Every structure is written in structure tokens, then in C-alpha cells.
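Q: what sequence does this backbone want?
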């Protein structure tokens, strides 16, 4: 039987293991669940998430303040808009970096699979 070595505790482990039975270290990326329940949850989140975001933006007081004739309230609205834009850019940038890393790590795990 072909065996691998756990990178953490250096015990021999089977190549089919996702976690080291000795120390519990993750030795392989477990496959994504494709069960009906998981699918339903993913689809449900895809539907609910935009609705939730839409409701949040409607409740967001920044729009009201930005439209206000009162200069002080208008100033608050402007700051709120800037913060919203900065945080949006940050989230987009972060999700971009995160996606890049996720792709890189899955490429790495595919490479590791071929080494067996
Ligand atoms: Zn181990």
C-alpha cells in the first residue's frame, strides 16, 4: 500500500486521507459537497443575498442625507457616500485577492494529487 507522510507529525498516512488520523492536520482538500441539501442552500443564498443587499441600501440613511438641503446633513451624506465607495472598493479588491488565492491553492492541491 502506497503511503504519504503527514507534513505536521511525519506519520505515514494513506493518500486517500483528508485529515491526518494521528494529529488531525489537513493533508488534502476535502471535495466540495454536491448533495441536494448543499445545492439547495447555495441556490437559496444566491436568491436571498441580492434581496438582503437591496433592502439594506434602501434603509441606508446616506441617500436621505446626501439629498438634504441642510449643509450639515448634506456633509454627513457626502462622508457616508465616500465611506460606502471606499468600503465597496475594499470588498471588491479583497474578494479579488481572495479568489486569486483560492484558485492558486486549488491548483496547488491538484499538483499535489498528481504527485501520489
Ligand atoms: Zn499528522
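A:
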Amino acid at each position: 500500500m502506497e503511503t504519504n507522510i503527514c507534513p505536521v507529525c511525519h506519520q505515514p498516512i494513506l493518500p486517500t486521507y483528508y485529515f491526518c488520523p494521528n494529529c488531525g492536520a489537513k493533508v488534502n482538500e476535502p471535495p466540495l459537497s454536491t448533495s441536494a441539501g448543499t445545492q439547495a442552500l447555495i441556490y437559496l443564498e444566491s436568491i436571498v443575498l441580492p434581496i438582503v443587499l437591496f433592502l439594506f441600501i434602501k434603509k441606508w440613511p446616506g441617500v436621505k442625507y446626501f439629498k438634504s438641503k441642510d449643509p450639515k446633513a448634506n456633509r454627513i451624506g457626502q462622508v457616508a457616500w465616500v465611506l460606502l465607495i471606499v468600503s465597496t472598493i475594499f470588498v471588491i479588491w479583497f474578494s479579488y485577492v481572495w479568489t486569486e488565492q483560492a484558485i492558486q491553492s486549488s491548483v496547488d492541491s491538484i499538483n499535489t494529487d498528481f504527485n501520489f
